[in-house]
Structures are given as C-alpha cells and as structure tokens.
Specification:
This protein has 11 helices and no strands. The chain is mainly α. Helix 3 runs parallel beside helix 6 and helix 4 packs antiparallel against helix 8. It is globular.
C-alpha cells in the first residue's frame, strides 16, 4: 500500500462516513403554480383541436354573423352586440370545454392522481389549470377583440375596467363547471357533454345573441352562458349589470363547492 493510499484511508476513517450531498428542495408554491400554468398553456396552444374550439370557431362566428348582419340588416344583431357575445363563447370554450376534456382524460389515464402526489399538490394543480385558462382568455381577448375592432366594434373606455372583472368571474364559473364534469363522469362522456353543451349554450343560451327578457326567456337568463353574455355586453357599454353578475357569481360559487365535494382524482 502506498503512502498516499494509507493517508487517504486514515483520513476517511478519522473523518467518519462521507457526507451525502444536500437533497434538493421543491420550488416555492407560487413558482410551482406558475410553472404548471405555463405548461398547461403550452399544451393548449399546441393542441390543434383546442385552438379550433377556443379561437378559430369563435372568429368564424364573429365574421360570419357580421357578414350576415350586413346582408340581413336588423334581423341579425350588430357588431356591438356580437363581439362581446363571441368573447363569451370563447371563454366558455377554453374554460369549460377545453379544461373539461383535458382534465377528464388526465383523470382517466391516472395523470391527475400522480401529479396530486408531487410537491405541486392538489390545490396547486387546480390553480395551475386556472392560470392556464386565464392566459388563454387574455389571448382570446386580444385576437377576438382586435377582429371586432377591425369590423367596427366600438366598446366604451370603461370596458377596460369592467371587462376584466366579468371575464375573470366567467372563467371561474366555467372552469369550475368543467372540472366538476371531468371529475365525476368518464372522459368520453365529458368529451361529448362539454362539446354539446358548448354548442347549445352558445347558440340558444344567451351567450352570443341576447335572450328575451320577458316570458319564458327570463328563466333562461339564469343560465351561466346568458349571465356571461349579458355581463360582457353591459361591460362593453361601460356599465356593470348587477343581476347577471350575481347569477354568474352564484354559478361560480356553487360549481366550485360541488367540484370540491364530488371531484374524484381517479
């Protein structure tokens, strides 16, 4: 044994067992939520089907209805009514349909249960999904809002104040509804139901075209789609309509409580 070997052995023996490197700590909770939110956002933007529903179809509805209005005249609502209605349709697509379908299949494949055991945790996972919805909604506002302005939409300046409040409340309500559906039925049923409900609520639920405020139409104003559409149209006119706002807040609260109670991770 060489002198250097004896010296190394003596040193290691006298110093005791070699210390292990320190274990890496998880990032702060806020950073984990933001990171997961950006990951979810990238998945949405890379998914052609979700882009079709969240952006392309609402744009087609806006342009098509505007062209029809120029031909049919007063039989079709003008751009000042259509633009906020199409924004409501887009929010429903990203928050309800998009998140519902994605979460439903993640639950079926066991991804949700796995992610819930990571340092992100169940709450961080849900907040990350909500953050992704908000980022997509901002993109929708930029794209659809710009298209509406190019087609002659003239929202009031106060819409910059009331609009974000309504959009945040609407995104919360429809994200909670999407998660409630995704966490209680099979993924295939979630896929079918969210798409059908999106079409029905968008076409006849008061999102794009205002409902009649008298007779049976008044009951339909209690739908979350009608509440979101009415709130956005009022916000575009520079006002905050209390009744649809309260209806939308009620849906957001009830859906959140129901999702918390009945959502299943597997």
């Amino acid at each position: 044994m060489t002198e250097h070997s004896r010296h190394d052995r003596a040193t290691s023996t006298s110093a005791g067992p070699r210390a292990l490197p320190p274990r890496a700590l998880p990032a702060p909770a806020g950073a984990r939520i933001v990171s997961h939110g950006l990951y979810e956002t990238r998945n949405v933007l890379r998914n052609g089907e979700q882009l079709l529903v969240s952006l392309i179809l609402p744009l087609l509805v806006l342009v098509g209805a505007h062209r029809l209005e120029s031909v049919a005249g007063g039989a079709v609502p003008g751009i000042d009514t259509l633009a906020p209605g199409v924004l409501a349709l887009a929010v429903m697509a990203s928050a309800f349909t998009g998140q519902g379908i994605a979460t439903g299949f993640e639950r079926q494949y066991g991804v949700l249960a796995h992610l819930a055991t990571t340092p992100l945790g169940p709450l961080g996972l849900i907040l990350g999904k909500a953050l992704a919805v908000l980022v997509v909604v901002v993109l929708q506002v930029l794209v659809i809002g710009t298209a509406g302005l190019m087609l002659g939409w003239h929202p009031e300046a106060a819409a910059l104040i009331w609009g974000p409040i309504v959009l945040l409340l609407g995104a919360t309500a429809f994200t909670a509804l999407g998660l409630l559906l995704a966490g209680t039925v099979r993924a295939e049923a979630t896929l079918a139901l969210t798409n059908v409900l999106w079409v029905v609520l968008g076409a006849a639920g008061g999102a794009v075209v205002p409902l009649d405020h008298t007779g049976s139409g008044a009951l339909l104003l209690l739908l979350p789609s009608a509440a979101l559409g009415e709130s956005l149209r009022a916000a575009a006119d520079g006002a905050l309509d209390a009744v649809p706002i309260l209806v939308l807040a009620g849906w957001a609260t009830l859906a959140s409580l129901a999702a918390r109670r009945w959502f299943k991770w597997r």
